[in-house]
Amino acid sequence: MNTVALRPPPRRSPDRAPDHDPAWLGRLFWCGAAAVLLAPLFVATEFRPWVLFEPQSLKVTGRFLASFLPPAHAPDFLALVAREAWRTVAIATAGMTLALAIALPLTLLSTRVLSISALSGRMALGAFWLRQALRWLLIVLRSVPELVWALVFVRVVGLGPTAGVLAIALTYGGMLGKVYGEILESGETHATETLLRNGASRLQAFAYGLLPQNAAELTSYTVYRWECAIRSSVVLGFVGAGGLGQQMDSSMKMFNGGEVLTMLAVFVALVALSDRISSGLRERLG
Question: Which portions of the chain are predicted below pLDDT 70?
Fold first, then answer.
Protein backbone atom coordinates (compact mmCIF):
# COMPACT_ATOMS: atom_id res chain seq x y z
CA MET A 1 0.00 0.00 0.00
CA ASN A 2 1.48 3.31 -1.10
CA THR A 3 1.31 6.20 1.34
CA VAL A 4 1.46 9.80 0.35
CA ALA A 5 3.47 12.01 2.65
CA LEU A 6 1.67 15.22 3.65
CA ARG A 7 3.88 18.22 3.11
CA PRO A 8 3.39 21.30 5.31
CA PRO A 9 2.33 24.46 3.48
CA PRO A 10 5.20 26.68 2.40
CA ARG A 11 6.10 29.32 4.90
CA ARG A 12 5.82 32.94 3.93
CA SER A 13 9.08 34.79 3.82
CA PRO A 14 9.26 37.43 6.54
CA ASP A 15 10.37 39.96 3.91
CA ARG A 16 7.41 39.30 1.64
CA ALA A 17 4.51 41.74 1.78
CA PRO A 18 1.10 40.34 2.82
CA ASP A 19 -1.38 39.50 0.08
CA HIS A 20 -4.04 41.77 1.60
CA ASP A 21 -4.36 44.64 4.04
CA PRO A 22 -4.73 43.08 7.50
CA ALA A 23 -6.63 46.14 8.76
CA TRP A 24 -9.07 46.37 5.84
CA LEU A 25 -12.06 45.31 7.93
CA GLY A 26 -11.49 48.04 10.52
CA ARG A 27 -10.95 50.69 7.87
CA LEU A 28 -14.11 49.59 6.07
CA PHE A 29 -16.08 49.86 9.31
CA TRP A 30 -14.85 53.39 10.09
CA CYS A 31 -15.45 54.57 6.52
CA GLY A 32 -19.03 53.27 6.76
CA ALA A 33 -19.50 54.91 10.15
CA ALA A 34 -18.21 58.22 8.79
CA ALA A 35 -20.60 57.99 5.83
CA VAL A 36 -23.53 57.37 8.18
CA LEU A 37 -22.57 60.34 10.36
CA LEU A 38 -21.95 62.70 7.42
CA ALA A 39 -25.09 61.85 5.48
CA PRO A 40 -27.44 63.91 7.73
CA LEU A 41 -25.07 66.87 7.42
CA PHE A 42 -25.25 66.84 3.62
CA VAL A 43 -29.04 66.55 3.84
CA ALA A 44 -29.26 69.48 6.27
CA THR A 45 -27.15 71.68 3.98
CA GLU A 46 -29.15 70.67 0.90
CA PHE A 47 -25.89 69.72 -0.84
CA ARG A 48 -26.78 68.90 -4.44
CA PRO A 49 -23.71 69.31 -6.66
CA TRP A 50 -25.43 67.78 -9.70
CA VAL A 51 -27.47 70.98 -10.03
CA LEU A 52 -24.31 72.67 -11.32
CA PHE A 53 -24.36 70.48 -14.43
CA GLU A 54 -27.97 71.03 -15.40
CA PRO A 55 -28.43 72.80 -18.77
CA GLN A 56 -29.95 75.93 -17.23
CA SER A 57 -27.13 76.21 -14.68
CA LEU A 58 -24.45 75.73 -17.34
CA LYS A 59 -26.09 78.42 -19.47
CA VAL A 60 -26.13 80.95 -16.60
CA THR A 61 -22.52 80.08 -15.68
CA GLY A 62 -21.34 80.53 -19.24
CA ARG A 63 -23.08 83.88 -19.59
CA PHE A 64 -21.60 85.07 -16.27
CA LEU A 65 -18.04 84.03 -17.20
CA ALA A 66 -18.36 85.58 -20.65
CA SER A 67 -19.12 88.95 -19.04
CA PHE A 68 -15.58 88.99 -17.61
CA LEU A 69 -13.99 89.29 -21.05
CA PRO A 70 -12.09 91.26 -22.07
CA PRO A 71 -10.32 92.30 -18.84
CA ALA A 72 -10.14 96.01 -18.12
CA HIS A 73 -6.72 97.45 -18.85
CA ALA A 74 -7.14 101.22 -19.03
CA PRO A 75 -4.09 103.02 -17.54
CA ASP A 76 -6.11 105.00 -15.01
CA PHE A 77 -7.94 101.87 -13.87
CA LEU A 78 -4.68 99.91 -13.53
CA ALA A 79 -3.27 102.74 -11.42
CA LEU A 80 -6.37 102.54 -9.20
CA VAL A 81 -5.97 98.77 -8.83
CA ALA A 82 -2.28 99.13 -7.93
CA ARG A 83 -3.14 101.72 -5.28
CA GLU A 84 -5.89 99.54 -3.77
CA ALA A 85 -3.65 96.46 -3.83
CA TRP A 86 -1.03 98.37 -1.87
CA ARG A 87 -3.72 99.50 0.56
CA THR A 88 -4.79 95.88 0.99
CA VAL A 89 -1.26 94.88 2.01
CA ALA A 90 -1.11 97.89 4.34
CA ILE A 91 -4.39 96.87 6.02
CA ALA A 92 -3.12 93.34 6.58
CA THR A 93 0.27 94.45 7.90
CA ALA A 94 -1.11 97.15 10.20
CA GLY A 95 -3.75 94.74 11.49
CA MET A 96 -1.12 92.08 12.21
CA THR A 97 1.03 94.64 14.04
CA LEU A 98 -1.85 95.55 16.35
CA ALA A 99 -2.70 91.84 16.72
CA LEU A 100 0.84 91.22 17.98
CA ALA A 101 0.46 94.10 20.43
CA ILE A 102 -2.66 92.37 21.77
CA ALA A 103 -1.38 88.79 21.67
CA LEU A 104 2.08 89.14 23.24
CA PRO A 105 1.10 90.58 26.66
CA LEU A 106 -1.93 88.28 26.90
CA THR A 107 0.31 85.30 26.11
CA LEU A 108 2.89 86.24 28.73
CA LEU A 109 0.20 86.67 31.39
CA SER A 110 -1.84 83.56 30.54
CA THR A 111 0.96 81.02 29.96
CA ARG A 112 1.27 78.64 32.91
CA VAL A 113 4.98 78.04 32.29
CA LEU A 114 5.70 81.68 33.15
CA SER A 115 3.67 81.62 36.38
CA ILE A 116 5.95 82.10 39.39
CA SER A 117 3.33 80.83 41.84
CA ALA A 118 2.96 77.58 39.84
CA LEU A 119 6.57 76.60 40.58
CA SER A 120 5.45 75.17 43.93
CA GLY A 121 3.11 72.78 42.10
CA ARG A 122 -0.13 74.67 42.64
CA MET A 123 -0.91 78.07 41.15
CA ALA A 124 -2.13 80.79 43.50
CA LEU A 125 -5.87 81.39 43.40
CA GLY A 126 -5.63 84.96 42.14
CA ALA A 127 -3.13 84.05 39.41
CA PHE A 128 -5.30 81.09 38.38
CA TRP A 129 -8.44 83.17 37.89
CA LEU A 130 -6.51 85.92 36.11
CA ARG A 131 -5.12 83.32 33.73
CA GLN A 132 -8.60 81.90 33.11
CA ALA A 133 -10.06 85.36 32.48
CA LEU A 134 -7.34 86.16 29.93
CA ARG A 135 -7.87 82.84 28.18
CA TRP A 136 -11.60 83.54 27.95
CA LEU A 137 -10.76 86.95 26.50
CA LEU A 138 -8.67 85.25 23.82
CA ILE A 139 -11.57 82.88 23.12
CA VAL A 140 -13.98 85.79 22.68
CA LEU A 141 -11.61 87.67 20.37
CA ARG A 142 -11.00 84.75 18.02
CA SER A 143 -14.58 83.43 18.18
CA VAL A 144 -16.00 86.56 16.53
CA PRO A 145 -15.09 86.44 12.80
CA GLU A 146 -13.20 89.41 11.42
CA LEU A 147 -16.11 90.02 9.05
CA VAL A 148 -18.42 90.65 12.01
CA TRP A 149 -15.86 92.93 13.67
CA ALA A 150 -15.58 94.84 10.38
CA LEU A 151 -19.34 95.35 10.22
CA VAL A 152 -19.24 96.74 13.76
CA PHE A 153 -16.33 99.08 13.11
CA VAL A 154 -17.77 100.31 9.79
CA ARG A 155 -20.71 101.63 11.80
CA VAL A 156 -18.43 103.11 14.46
CA VAL A 157 -15.60 104.68 12.42
CA GLY A 158 -17.25 104.73 8.99
CA LEU A 159 -16.21 103.22 5.67
CA GLY A 160 -12.52 102.80 5.00
CA PRO A 161 -9.38 100.87 5.92
CA THR A 162 -9.54 101.68 9.64
CA ALA A 163 -12.40 99.24 10.12
CA GLY A 164 -10.42 96.50 8.37
CA VAL A 165 -7.31 97.11 10.45
CA LEU A 166 -9.24 96.93 13.73
CA ALA A 167 -11.19 93.84 12.65
CA ILE A 168 -8.00 91.93 11.76
CA ALA A 169 -6.29 93.14 14.94
CA LEU A 170 -8.96 91.75 17.28
CA THR A 171 -9.61 88.41 15.62
CA TYR A 172 -5.97 87.66 14.83
CA GLY A 173 -4.90 88.87 18.26
CA GLY A 174 -7.05 86.10 19.77
CA MET A 175 -5.69 83.52 17.33
CA LEU A 176 -2.06 84.47 17.87
CA GLY A 177 -2.45 84.53 21.65
CA LYS A 178 -3.92 81.03 21.71
CA VAL A 179 -1.35 79.45 19.42
CA TYR A 180 1.58 81.28 21.01
CA GLY A 181 0.54 79.92 24.40
CA GLU A 182 0.27 76.36 23.07
CA ILE A 183 3.69 76.60 21.42
CA LEU A 184 5.35 77.92 24.58
CA GLU A 185 3.76 75.33 26.85
CA SER A 186 4.49 72.35 24.58
CA GLY A 187 8.27 72.87 24.49
CA GLU A 188 11.02 72.23 27.00
CA THR A 189 10.42 74.29 30.14
CA HIS A 190 13.34 73.29 32.36
CA ALA A 191 15.45 76.35 31.52
CA THR A 192 12.51 78.68 32.09
CA GLU A 193 11.68 77.15 35.46
CA THR A 194 15.33 77.37 36.51
CA LEU A 195 15.44 81.07 35.66
CA LEU A 196 12.24 81.76 37.60
CA ARG A 197 13.48 79.82 40.64
CA ASN A 198 16.67 81.88 40.66
CA GLY A 199 14.87 85.22 40.77
CA ALA A 200 14.42 86.07 37.09
CA SER A 201 11.36 88.05 36.14
CA ARG A 202 8.62 86.70 33.90
CA LEU A 203 9.90 88.75 30.95
CA GLN A 204 13.50 87.61 31.50
CA ALA A 205 12.44 83.96 31.69
CA PHE A 206 10.56 84.38 28.44
CA ALA A 207 13.42 86.17 26.65
CA TYR A 208 16.19 83.81 27.75
CA GLY A 209 14.31 80.54 28.34
CA LEU A 210 11.27 80.11 26.10
CA LEU A 211 11.94 82.44 23.19
CA PRO A 212 15.29 81.03 21.95
CA GLN A 213 13.98 77.48 21.53
CA ASN A 214 10.56 78.49 20.12
CA ALA A 215 11.51 81.53 18.01
CA ALA A 216 11.44 79.67 14.68
CA GLU A 217 8.01 78.16 15.26
CA LEU A 218 6.55 81.42 16.59
CA THR A 219 7.89 83.41 13.64
CA SER A 220 6.71 80.83 11.12
CA TYR A 221 3.17 80.93 12.46
CA THR A 222 3.20 84.74 12.55
CA VAL A 223 4.25 84.93 8.90
CA TYR A 224 1.54 82.41 7.98
CA ARG A 225 -1.06 84.54 9.75
CA TRP A 226 0.14 87.63 7.86
CA GLU A 227 -0.47 85.73 4.62
CA CYS A 228 -3.99 84.87 5.82
CA ALA A 229 -4.55 88.51 6.80
CA ILE A 230 -3.97 89.59 3.21
CA ARG A 231 -6.75 87.26 2.07
CA SER A 232 -9.02 88.48 4.87
CA SER A 233 -8.41 92.14 4.04
CA VAL A 234 -9.84 91.57 0.55
CA VAL A 235 -12.96 89.90 1.96
CA LEU A 236 -13.41 92.71 4.49
CA GLY A 237 -13.53 95.19 1.63
CA PHE A 238 -16.92 93.79 0.61
CA VAL A 239 -18.43 95.26 3.78
CA GLY A 240 -16.80 98.66 3.26
CA ALA A 241 -13.48 98.12 5.04
CA GLY A 242 -11.43 99.51 2.14
CA GLY A 243 -8.79 97.97 -0.06
CA LEU A 244 -9.08 95.86 -3.18
CA GLY A 245 -12.22 94.09 -1.95
CA GLN A 246 -14.24 97.28 -1.68
CA GLN A 247 -13.32 98.29 -5.23
CA MET A 248 -14.15 94.78 -6.46
CA ASP A 249 -17.54 94.95 -4.76
CA SER A 250 -18.29 98.25 -6.50
CA SER A 251 -17.38 96.80 -9.91
CA MET A 252 -19.55 93.73 -9.33
CA LYS A 253 -22.52 95.90 -8.40
CA MET A 254 -22.02 97.83 -11.63
CA PHE A 255 -21.88 94.52 -13.59
CA ASN A 256 -18.43 95.41 -14.89
CA GLY A 257 -16.96 91.94 -15.30
CA GLY A 258 -13.80 93.15 -17.04
CA GLU A 259 -12.77 95.19 -14.02
CA VAL A 260 -13.56 92.27 -11.71
CA LEU A 261 -11.36 89.92 -13.76
CA THR A 262 -8.43 92.35 -13.65
CA MET A 263 -8.73 92.75 -9.89
CA LEU A 264 -9.03 88.99 -9.42
CA ALA A 265 -5.83 88.50 -11.40
CA VAL A 266 -4.06 91.12 -9.26
CA PHE A 267 -5.39 89.49 -6.10
CA VAL A 268 -4.17 86.04 -7.19
CA ALA A 269 -0.74 87.52 -7.92
CA LEU A 270 -0.77 89.26 -4.53
CA VAL A 271 -1.59 86.04 -2.67
CA ALA A 272 1.03 84.11 -4.67
CA LEU A 273 3.65 86.74 -3.82
CA SER A 274 2.79 86.69 -0.11
CA ASP A 275 2.88 82.89 -0.17
CA ARG A 276 6.32 82.95 -1.76
CA ILE A 277 7.61 85.46 0.78
CA SER A 278 6.23 83.47 3.72
CA SER A 279 7.64 80.20 2.30
CA GLY A 280 11.07 81.80 1.91
CA LEU A 281 11.00 83.08 5.49
CA ARG A 282 9.97 79.65 6.79
CA GLU A 283 12.84 78.00 4.91
CA ARG A 284 15.33 80.43 6.42
CA LEU A 285 13.90 79.89 9.90
CA GLY A 286 13.78 76.12 9.46
Answer: 1-23, 114-127, 282, 285-286
**Rounded CA separation 152/175 (Å):** 19
User: 3-class secondary structure for 189-227?
Assistant: CHHHHHHHHCCCCHHHHHHHHHHHHHHHHHHHHHHHHHH
The length of the chain, given as a count of residues: 286
Residue ranges and CATH numbers for the domains of the chain are: 28-60 (no CATH), 75-285 (1.10.3720.10)
**Phi/psi at 243 (nearest 5 deg)?**
85, -165
pLDDT in tens, 154-168: 888 888 888 889 999
Amino acid at 117: S
What pLDDT was estimated at residue 127?
64
